[in-house]
Amino acid sequence: MTLTEKMEQLVQRVKALGFHVYMRSPGATFMVFVEGDNLGYLQINRLAGGVDISTVHVPNTSTGTGFQVHRGLSESDLTADKLRDAFVVMPHWGSARNSVRKYKGIEDYRRGDSFRAGYQKV
Predict the structure, then answer these.
(1) Which of 110-117's residues contact partners 24+ apart within 8 Å by CB, and which partners?
(2) Backbone angles phi, psi at 26, to 5 degrees
(3) What is the count of structural domains for the chain?
(4) Strand partners of residue 22
(5) Any idea what DSSP says for residue 60?
(6) Which backbone phi and psi does 4 adopt, to 5 degrees?
(7) Confidence of residue 93 (pLDDT cuts 50, 70, 90)
(8) Per-residue pLDDT, 8
(9) pLDDT-derived band of residue 12, with 50, 70 and 90 as boundaries?
(10) Domain that holds residue 54
(11) Which residues, listed in sequence order, are joined to residue 20 by a DSSP beta bridge?
């Protein structure tokens, strides 16, 4: 199975679990998934295998753009609860909580810069 085919399966799985999916292009190996005003990030982990899930917040020099909350999940391990883990402000092990500012929704995220503006609902 190609990465594009794998990603299409993941898109369908995430949508079936009740989330909206945004991608920059059909061949991408990453997506932003949305429930209400909450955003999470999912990507295929080409090195370790499986998929990784991360939080999403406004970039800053202390904590970057998000925290990885799950690594190397198989498609069958991908549940709505595990996706929602990406909606936390910061995992319990994180630091510099005051540096984290969450986006106010997908449109706030897309307005951030020209790269994020390229995300479209699929």
Answers:
(1) 112/58, 115/24
(2) -60, -25
(3) 1
(4) 32, 121
(5) B
(6) -65, -45
(7) confident
(8) 93
(9) very high
(10) 3-116
(11) 34
Is residue 81 assigned to a domain?
yes
Q: How many residues are recorded in the chain?
A: 122
**Residue 56: CB atoms within 10 Å:** 21
**Sequence-ordered alpha helix ranges (H) in the chain:** 3-16, 80-84, 106-110, 114-117
Domain assignment of residue 122, yes or no: no
Q: Could you tell me if residue 72 is inside a domain? A: yes
pLDDT at 64: 92
Inter-residue contact 53 to 41 (CB < 8 Å): yes
CA distance 24 to 66: 18
Question: Residue 121 domain-assigned?
Answer: no
Query: Using one digit for the tens of pLDDT, what is the confidence trace for 48-74?
Result: 789 999 999 999 999 999 999 999 999
pLDDT band at residue 75 using 50, 70 and 90 as cut-offs:
confident
